[in-house]
From TrEMBL:
Entry's Gene Ontology cellular component terms: ribonucleoside-diphosphate reductase complex
GO biological process: deoxyribonucleotide biosynthetic process
Domain ATP-cone, chain residue ranges per copy: 1-92
Class in the EC hierarchy, top level: oxidoreductase
Record lineage: Eukaryota, Viridiplantae, Streptophyta, Embryophyta, Tracheophyta
Transmembrane stretches, start-end: none
Stretches of the chain forming a coiled coil according to its record: none
E.C. no: 1.17.4.1
The protein, known as: Ribonucleoside-diphosphate reductase
Signal sequence interval, chain numbering: none
Family: Belongs to the ribonucleoside diphosphate reductase large chain family.
Molecular function as annotated in GO: ATP binding; ribonucleoside-diphosphate reductase activity, thioredoxin disulfide as acceptor
NCBIfam families xrefs: NrdE_NrdA
Length: 1124
């Protein structure tokens, strides 16, 4: 066994070297709780011939990260291994690394493809000595494992596919890219970002210092014109912006409605839906920055538009495909008048903007006057009850989480850009509120301040202050450093203002807008972490006050810094006439008086003399990626859970809220049992009796905090936010009453963004399914080893071991029809263990067949079977000896099935111990696992066949007395329990050939779970076969299902199975019959029947019509070759 070193040399494996390296990286960690030797042992179990040292480090880091739930120090070790690995593979010198990136040659084309801009390269080389000396590489080790992996995957620059940047290199590249020749400011920015005080947004981190330095995050567009030219000019602009990593918000209020007259062609318009399908396909095709992030467009429409009902259907999962555009995001731009009409149960008129122009161009009293005028003139295309439209909005939100809710009048009334004209939309994430026109595309550059960093220990100088504080236990000796927040806010303001000047704009309209109005967007991350560090429950009065104080500080010092810039560079071009130019600041628009923390009178005086350089300043945005990098919770949101899963190449593992884990560990309460209870409670601490009440209050999740309180905190900070905020609403079980109450609360409180996404909990929590409920009752004094040996392991071991023993015995007692068969079986002793009901298992656990949770469970199941079959066979071998031809086999050489697939098993089972057992005892059976068809035996046990998805949710069964319809028992049970099942629904299922997709009565979450094999991508089915293939030492009976097979589809699929390394590429090709006989006698009139038809009549009618049904699929259980 050898490893390949980084320089290409081969060297025998020395396990003690692996252990020594991990011990060296464990400096300062708890030797009692973080065991590098244990990590090393697990790594050694995954070593195979020719593994590289880089791959060993990657495996070691993943292994340590997977053990984080045992003790927080494993997270530190994981990060150190990963960072050390990158450092060994990259150059230390920043300037030398920049040279390599600048001299990059594309390996395919042979053309020079510099990754660094010419001017930035010259600046760096000219100042190489100083810049190199400023970088502190040890700060790379302060990232946590997942933050570092996020950087490595998407942010650090690569040369020919290989990462060449270190995190510190990236931060210095970004700093110089922003400040150019101003080296002092670049170095200041570098140190603040390097110490994790703040971070610029993803596009800035991606592109700063590169030849196409598009650093802006958000673009807002309005339709150029209601014409083919205008629509396609807008579409082109969206595509060009998306190519450059910009998220887009586009308003379409002025596009004429369906059926409206087109004078140029004497025809009628098709409305917004076909147009949006073209935008949908563009978003899919043009991703952000060449594969870094998917393209993303949000589309805004006012609710008076005549196509509003079609608009609300576009993202739904069911319905005709030509009426859907599911890759776009949708937002409503809601005038106050609509809310008033809903509240009073009044009528609401729908207009075509071509026939009732100007409604999108005014707000407030002007809008109400024009709207009423058009109503009086009879220009409405349709009049509905306002509440009818309201309930359609709520229906869409419950099903899809959208549309976003933004209040047009608040957005305009409280905007410092109101002097420019009517603002018509927000951006992709609802926090940017800026003016757009056909000649101006609004832009915003973003950064987020890492609030947990400002929590300080009392009486500890800043220079000696720890860079990371974790947990709530020391909160009484901590405070929030507002002075440092003021300093960092000023720097962030200067940086974002500079980006406006150095930015590469993808379209000229964007440059025009940004240069004229110079808006920026300062946000935050880690507000929930900040409250935890200070020992404050999220909804406590102390947290609510701190929330206000933080945003008051940010707004004050952003204004102050912008005014200071204006003294040198002048105000932005359109400053005169703005509210700020009249002395009206954001708190004035909310009728709020700021606190006495800062000198607002002096600031107002400064602004009256100097003005400000930026029209807008504060915009708390979502911070999913950058929060992950810095190890904080997202933006200003509460934690959604205290426990969640992370997937890496070696598998999936549990991660616990680092603060909670730290607190419980320090209190001596953390144990595998407690972890299991947290999983069982879906990450909630409320019902875990071991956790003290004061910690329960601090660690409540968003599902346990009143959303009205979350909204009120958004209102509290809203008077210091001159753009808006990405306010998600979390409801466990949303309904119309709750949503209506909440939406009206956000509107009446004056929020600009009433709702970004509606987040609701999944019907089932996959992470919970492998919890051993017996462990939830275990005594705390049981040893850790015993705790981890849960009943799940024992059950898996017992069943698989029993099957292995049985099949091995059959070899000896069997009657062989020919002597050659007996000779072979006695010599090699192969057996074949399969499964049935995998699809049923997924259904019982609430997992769609092609979900990531189901794919993980598929792997876990077959890993368990193969492991325990090997273990049982080895135990038999200790008594009866190995099979006759064992010597020379791969297993005799220590090569198991995963090794042949270059796959490292998970940490679920002790593979190192198993390998040791096999090396001593061998195994009794040459082959063990062979998932076969199970048509007959599945029928006997009432399961779906082997590992296949359901082919239909309704089918016919023939008995002596005739033929009758059978429904998927799980679906029937669910629909009956929900009160949805009826003969009419059965008829609809038959009419849809057993598919639930187009049956509107069935909820979307059930549709996802009960999709049939015809609605699941066969590539996914193949990939799941590959995932379990590394634990199958025989092969598997893999059927391929194609509705309408053709040469192209089949060729693609066969090559996919071959390249993925499957043994059996295809068993049968199953295609649907051209016609479905079971469907022919359905009474289509019944599909529209009213629910008040009597039950007896329904049953009589449907039974009569089903009498002559014929099965459309072959009865496979009649075939013995499929009947195991």
């Amino acid at each position: 066994m050898y490893v390949v070193k980084r320089d290409g040399r081969q060297e025998p494996v020395h396990f003690d070297k692996i252990t020594a390296r991990l011990k060296k990286l464990s400096y300062g960690l708890s030797i009692d709780h973080c065991d590098p030797v244990l990590v090393s042992q697990k790594v050694c179990a995954g070593v195979y011939k020719g593994v590289t040292t880089t791959q060993l480090d990657e495996l070691a880091a993943e292994t340590a990260a997977a053990m984080t739930a045992n003790h927080p120090d494993y997270a530190s070790l994981a990060a150190r291994i990963a960072v050390s690995n990158l450092h060994k593979n990259t150059k230390k010198s920043f300037s030398e690394t920049v040279k390599d990136m600048y001299n990059h040659v594309n390996e395919r084309s042979g053309l020079e493809s510099p990754l660094i801009a010419d001017d930035v390269f010259e600046i760096i080389i000219k100042n190489a000595t100083r810049l190199d000396s400023e970088i502190i590489y040890d700060r790379d080790f302060e990232y946590d494992y997942f933050g570092f992996k996020t950087l490595e995957r998407s942010y650090l620059l690569k040369v020919n596919g290989k990462v060449v940047e270190r995190p510190q290199h990236m931060l210095m590249r970004v700093s110089v890219g922003i400040h150019k020749e101003d080296i002092d400011s670049a170095i200041q920015t570098y140190h603040l970002m390097s110490q994790r005080w703040f971070t610029h947004a993803s596009p800035t981190l991606f592109n700063s210092g590169t030849p196409r330095a598009q650093l802006s995050s958000c673009f807002l567009i309005c339709m150029k014109d209601d014409s083919i030219e205008g629509i396609y000019d807008t579409l082109k602009e969206c595509a060009v912006i998306s190519k450059s990593a910009g998220g887009i918000g586009v308003s379409i209020h002025n596009i004429r409605a369906s059926g409206s007259y087109i004078r140029g062609t004497n025809g009628a318009s098709n409305g917004i839906v076909p147009m949006l399908r073209v935008f949908n396909d563009t978003a899919r095709y043009v991703d952000q920055g060449g594969g870094k992030r998917k393209g993303a467009f949000a589309v805004y429409l006012e609710p008076w538009h005549a196509d509003i009902f079609d608009f609300l259907e576009l993202r739904k999962n069911h319905g005709k495909e030509e009426h859907r555009a599911r890759d776009l995001f949708y937002g409503l731009w809601i005038p106050d008048l609509f809310m008033e009409r809903v509240q009073s149960d009044g009528q609401w008129s729908l207009f075509c903007p071509n026939e009732a122009p100007g409604l999108a161009d005014c707000w407030g009293a002007d809008f109400e006057r024009l709207y009423s005028q058009y109503e009086n003139e009879g220009k409405a295309k349709k009049v509905v009850q306002a509440q009818q439209l309201w309930y359609e909005i709520l229906t869409s939100q419950v099903e899809t989480g959208t549309p976003y809710m933004l209040f047009k009048d608040s957005c305009n009334r409280k905007s410092n850009q109101q002097n420019l004209g009517t603002i018509k939309s927000s951006n992709l994430c609802t926090e940017i509120i800026e003016y757009t026109s056909p000649t101006e595309t609004a832009v915003c550059n973003l950064a987020s301040i890492a609030l947990p960093r400002f929590v300080r220990e009392k009486d500890v100088p800043l220079d000696s202050h720890p860079s990371k504080i974790v947990g709530s236990l020391g909160s009484k000796n901590r405070y929030f450093d507002f002075d440092k927040l003021a300093e960092v806010t000023a720097t962030v303001t200067v940086n974002l203002n500079k980006i406006i000047d150095v930015n590469h704009y993808p379209v000229e309209t964007a440059k025009t807008s940004n240069m004229r109005h110079r808006p920026i967007g300062i946000g935050v991350q880690g507000l929930a972490d900040t409250f935890i560090l200070l020992g404050m429950p999220f909804d406590s009065s102390e947290a609510q006050q701190l929330n206000k104080d933080i945003f008051e500080t940010i707004y004050y010092h952003a204004l102050k810094s912008s005014s200071e810039i204006a003294t040198k560079e002048g105000t932005y071009e359109t400053y005169q006439g703005s509210p700020v130019s009249k002395g009206i600041l954001q708190p004035d628009m909310w009728n709020v008086t700021p606190s006495n923390r800062w000198d607002w009178a002096a600031l107002r005086d400064m602004i009256s003399k100097n003005g400000i350089r930026n029209s807008l300043l504060v915009a708390p945005m979502p911070t999913a990626s950058t929060s992950q990098i810095l190890g904080n919770n997202e933006c200003f949101e509460p934690y959604t859970s205290n426990i969640y899963s992370r997937r890496v190449l070696s598998g999936e593992f549990v991660v616990v809220n680092k603060h909670l884990l730290h607190d419980l560990t320090d209190m001596g309460l953390w144990s595998p049992s407690l972890k299991n209870k947290l999983i069982y409670e879906n990450g909630s601490v409320i019902n875990v009796p071991e956790i003290p009440d004061d910690l329960k209050a601090i660690y409540r999740t968003v599902w346990e905090i009143k959303q009205r309180t979350v909204v009120d905190m958004a209102v509290d900070r809203g008077c210091f936010i001159d753009q808006s905020q990405s306010l998600n609403i979390h409801m466990d079980k949303p309904n119309f009453a709750k949503l209506t109450s909440l939406h009206f609360h956000t509107w009446k409180k004056g929020l600009k963004t009433g709702m970004y996404y509606l987040r609701s909990r999944a019907a089932a929590d996959a992470i919970k399914f492998t919890v051993d409920t017996a462990m939830l009752k275990e005594k705390p004094d049981v040893t850790e080893g015993t705790e981890e040996e849960d009943s799940e392991a024992k059950m898996a071991q017992m069943v698989t071991a029993t099957v292995t023993v049985n099949l091995n015995k059959i070899i000896d007692v069997n009657h062989y029809p020919v002597e050659t068969a007996k000779t072979s079986n006695m010599r090699h002793r192969p057996i074949g263990i399969g499964v049935q009901g995998l699809a049923d298992t997924f259904i019982l656990l609430g997992m769609p067949f092609d979900s990531s949770e189901a794919q993980q469970l598929n792997k876990d199941i077959f890993e368990t079977i193969y492991y325990h079959a090997l273990k049982s066979s080895s135990e038999i071998a200790t008594k009866e000896g190995t099979y006759e031809t064992y010597q020379g086999s791969p297993v005799s050489k220590g090569i198991l099935q995963p090794d042949m697939w270059n796959v490292t098993p998970s940490n679920r089972w002790d593979w190192a111990a198993l390998r040791d057992m096999i090396s001593k005892n061998g195994i009794r059976n040459s082959l063990l696992v062979a998932p076969m068809p199970t048509a007959s035996t599945s029928q006997i046990l009432g399961n779906n066949e082997c590992f296949e998805p359901y082919t239909s949710n309704i089918y016919s069964r023939r008995v002596l007395s005739g033929e009758f319809v059978v429904v998927n028992k799980h679906l029937l049970h669910d629909l009956t329990d929900m009160g949805l099942w009826s003969p009419s629904l059965k008829n609809k299922l038959i009419y849809e050939n057993g598919s639930v997709i187009n049956v509107p009565e069935i909820p979307d979450d059930l549709k996802a779970i009960y999709r049939t094999v015809w609605e699941i991508k066969q590539r996914t089915v193949v990939d799941m076969a590959v995932d379990r293939g590394c634990f199958i030492d025989q092969s598997q009976s893999l059927n391929i299902h194609m509705d309408k097979p053709n040469f192209a589809k089949l060729t693609s699929l066969h090559f996919h199975t071959w390249k993925k390394g499957l043994k059996t590429g295809m068993y049968y090709l199953r295609s649907r019959a051209a016609a479905d006989a079971i469907k022919f006698t359905v009474d289509t009139a019944m599909l529209k029947e009213k629910p008040d038809v009597t039950e007896g009549t329904e049953e009589e009618d449907s039974e009569a019509k089903m009498a002559q049904m014929v099965c459309s699929l072959t009865n496979r259980e009649d075939c013995l070759s499929c009947g195991s």
